[in-house]
């Protein structure tokens, strides 16, 4: 059986994030974060892990979203926004 845990995060979702977005706008695009730490209120973590049904390497993704004055200021992690074309 395939096992999925956490927030499913795609390149398309991350590419929709822009600096200056509000927390509500980020939540609309990415969903509710898996980790919202009360000690780091300006950071949301989205973590995803999938183990294929027939074995093989697990797929893992991690994206951290950082806010300043309730506006998106930067991202870190395995999936990064694509450059504007």
Radius of gyration: 14 Å
The biggest beta sheet is recorded as: 5 strands, antiparallel
Strand content: 35-45%
Task: Report the average pLDDT across residues.
Answer: 85
The string of secondary-structure elements, in order, is: EHHEEEE
Helix-and-strand structural type: alpha+beta
Report low-confidence residues grouped into runs of 5 or more. none
Q: Helix share of residues?
A: 10-25%
3D shape: elongated
- C-alpha termini separation: 39 Å
Number of strands: 5
Please report the number of helical segments: 2
Q: Can you offer a commentary on this structure?
A:
The chain contains two helices and five strands. Strand 4 (59-68) and strand 5 form a beta hairpin. The model has no long low-confidence stretch (mean pLDDT 85). It has helices at residues 11-15, 23-30; strands at residues 3-6, 35-36, 43-51, 59-68, 71-77. The longest helix is centred in the first third of the chain and has 8 residues, at 23-30. Strands 1, 2, 3, 4 and 5 form a five-stranded antiparallel β-sheet that branches. The chain has 85 residues and is α+β, with helices and mostly antiparallel strands. It starts with a strand and ends in an 8-residue tail after the last strand. Helices cover 15% and strands 38% of the residues. The protein is elongated, with a radius of gyration of 14 Å.
């Amino acid at each position: 059986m395939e096992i999925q845990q956490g927030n499913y995060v795609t390149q398309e979702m991350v590419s929709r994030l822009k600096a200056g977005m509000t927390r509500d706008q980020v939540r609309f695009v990415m969903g509710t974060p898996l980790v919202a730490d009360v000690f780091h209120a300006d950071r949301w973590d989205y973590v995803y892990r999938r183990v294929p049904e027939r074995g093989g390497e697990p797929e893992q993704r991690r994206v951290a979203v950082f806010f300043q004055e309730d506006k998106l200021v930067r991202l870190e992690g395995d999936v990064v926004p694509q450059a504007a074309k």
